[in-house]
Amino acid sequence: MADRVNAIVTTVRRGQRYTEANRVLAARTAEMLGIPNVPRGNASLEELRTQYGADAVLVARRGLLTLVTAEGELFFHPGMAHLRIKNLLRGHGDHLAAALALAEGMRVLDCTLGTGADAIVESFAVGATGTVTALESNPLIAAVIGGGLARATGDNYEMHAAMRRITVHCTDALDYLRVQPEGSYDAVYFDPMFRRPLHESAGMNALRSLADMRALTDETVAEAQRVARQRVVMKERRESGEFARLGFFEIMGGQYSRIAYGVIKI
User: Fold this and answer.
1) Edge-to-edge strand list for the sheet holding 72-75
2) Tens of pLDDT along 237-262?
């Protein structure tokens, strides 16, 4: 599991929609994560970080959490998930859904929650009779993205329902896989953090500063194959040597895309 950073939780400044709901969310988050709940007053976030020696600040605003670090801010946003769901509704397909061979009623284990966009697409594709379990090793990221999936409003009914159906666990993927029964999921998915980012943004910079940057291991992939009934999929740069190193010899994805999906069929 990635090292837990020194963090605090607070609310927006007084006068900025400083609601009771934000205070309750901050208190609940502090108790859940075992970190200080700091009164905001009129102090800036930088002043609070300096005062408490915190590397990261969780801010409760509008009923959701924003994670503020020196590298940027991370907050829940479905990203391209809404467009990908529209494509699926129109019958245009989705490269991840195709790689995982998603269908109504499947059980999917997403071992790398990240921003949550892939998990939303997976949840939509497997429908109300399917399940998506998403893992995130960093408790701060899990709180921000898991809270967004549970409380944010989707762009449409399909996205909203898909978000609510995702179950998030804060745990290391290998630890979780080791205790799962054989064949307990139809598909297992990995999206390791790229060593060289495809694009820079404040949100992705904050995510990268806290995310587990370790490469996948042979043991983790072997456990995924034991747990999966149908296939294991890994997302990587198209030219990545990780596919061959870990035994993902079937490559899928858009012909001109910079990313691809390695597939191991069980």
Assistant:
1) 7-11, 56-61, 64-69, 72-75
2) 999 999 999 999 999 998 888 999 99
Taken in order 235, 237, 243, 248, is the CA torsion positive or negative?
positive
Query: Can you tell me the distance from the alpha carbon of 199 to that of 228, in angstroms, rounded to the nearest whole number?
Result: 32
CA–CA dist 21, 147 (Å, integer): 14
Q: Residue 67, Cα to own-chain centre: how many angstroms?
A: 14
Q: How many CB atoms lie within 10 A of CB 202?
A: 14
Listed residue (59, 58, 77, 66) closest to 18, CA to CA = 59
Alpha helices in 108-230 (DSSP H): 117-126, 139-151, 157-164, 173-178, 202-210, 218-227
φ and ψ of 193, to 5 deg? -65, 125
* C-alpha torsion sign, points 3, 205, 170, 29: positive
The rounded distance, in Å, linking the Cα atoms of 176 and 163 is 22
Give the per-residue pLDDT at 265: 98
Q: Look-up: residue for tokens 């529209």?
A: 86
pLDDT by residue (tens digit) across 210-235? 667 788 999 999 999 999 999 999 99
**Pair 176, 168: CB distance under 8 Å:** no
At 143, is the secondary structure helix, strand, or coil? helix
Q: What is the DSSP letter of 78?
A: -
Q: State the pLDDT confidence band at 153, using cuts at 50, 70 and 90.
A: confident
